[in-house]
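Retry 2 of 3 after timeout on previous attempt. Resubmitting structure tokens to design endpoint.
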């Protein structure tokens, strides 16, 4: 009988901040291994949103199969549980076809959820009536009284959530009422969860200033490629400016411009700034993520083929690919 370790699906993870070259490295590695790319990007799931998401083109795919790209229309919603389910289907298909899945992308929360199979029941199956009852209680008795109710059933969560953060207090109370379990215990169990994939992970890294320069150049290319027109088409097609898909960096700023709230130059400068700040947050997230080997891409002359060649050696050493 095979052990759990032997039955876990093998995979490769390529993480990193925006504009660090994850997609090109993933394609190069898949060409060497016969693998397939699973996009770990919360925005590339949307059709017709190509320029602002820096979506990999058919030419850039170079014949490598890609999953989790263009699977929803921009007016559709996608929860973390929805993304997990779609990723599970893709992983299952890779296993049936006998190909190595290469998970590549910068949405750290999504990537972690797929690798570890976290349970997001905390955020699903909300009971509107129950929520309304807690909201009514808070309105009548005050936020402190609501917080005391949480303290009575989950003192650990109450110690971590400020009484004024009514949304989180209510979510914790809802979770307790729906499951009978303290949300603090649920969260602790999720943090201790072991990865369900047997993976070799890599974190692409380079000098911060050079990364910021790459981000600025990418935004300039987006402008030249017609990002403004892309957003205008989405709005003309009836997509609401308040749609979740249009809250992403690169889209919300252009919406602001088209609504006359700023100039086009100001919108693109805001995209550059927002993208740099996002990259900084991504780096912070991934440095805390276990199982990722940091690769200084400057050491490889920022060459995807060289980086993928090193990855191939490492995944063979780890027994991910034989």
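Retry 2 succeeded. Sequence:
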């Amino acid at each position: 009988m095979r052990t759990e370790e032997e039955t876990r699906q093998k995979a490769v993870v390529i993480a990193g901040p925006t504009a660090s070259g994850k997609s090109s490295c993933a394609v190069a590695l898949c060409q060497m291994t016969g693998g397939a790319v699973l996009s770990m990007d919360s925005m590339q799931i949307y059709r017709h949103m190509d320029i602002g998401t820096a979506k990999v083109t058919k030419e850039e795919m170079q014949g490598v199969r890609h999953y989790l790209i263009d699977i929803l229309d921009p007016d559709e919603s996608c929860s973390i549980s929805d993304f997990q389910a779609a990723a599970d289907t893709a992983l299952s298909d890779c296993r049936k076809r006998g190909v190595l899945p290469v998970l590549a992308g910068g949405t750290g929360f999504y990537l972690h959820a797929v690798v570890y199979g976290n349970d997001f029941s905390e955020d699903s199956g909300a009971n509107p009536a129950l929520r309304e009852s807690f909201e009514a209680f808070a309105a009548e008795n005050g936020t402190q009284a609501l917080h005391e109710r949480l303290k009575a059933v989950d003192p650990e969560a109450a110690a971590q959530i400020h009484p004024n953060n009514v949304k989180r207090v209510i979510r914790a109370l809802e979770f307790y009422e729906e499951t009978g379990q303290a949300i603090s215990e649920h969260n602790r169990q999720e943090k201790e969860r072991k990865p369900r994939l047997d993976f070799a992970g890599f974190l692409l890294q380079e000098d911060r200033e050079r990364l910021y320069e790459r981000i600025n150049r990418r935004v300039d290319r987006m402008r030249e490629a017609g990002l403004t027109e892309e957003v205008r088409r989405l709005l003309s097609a009836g997509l609401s400016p308040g749609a979740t898909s249009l809250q992403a960096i690169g889209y919300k700023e252009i919406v602001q411009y088209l609504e006359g709230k700023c100039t086009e130059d100001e919108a693109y400068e805001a995209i550059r700034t927002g993208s740099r700040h996002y990259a900084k947050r991504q780096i912070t997230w991934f440095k805390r993520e276990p199982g990722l080997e940091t690769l200084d891409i400057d050491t490889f002359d920022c060459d995807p083929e060289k980086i993928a060649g090193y990855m191939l050696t490492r995944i063979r050493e780890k027994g991910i690919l034989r």
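Attempt log closed. The CA atoms of residues 10 and 320 lie 6 Å apart.
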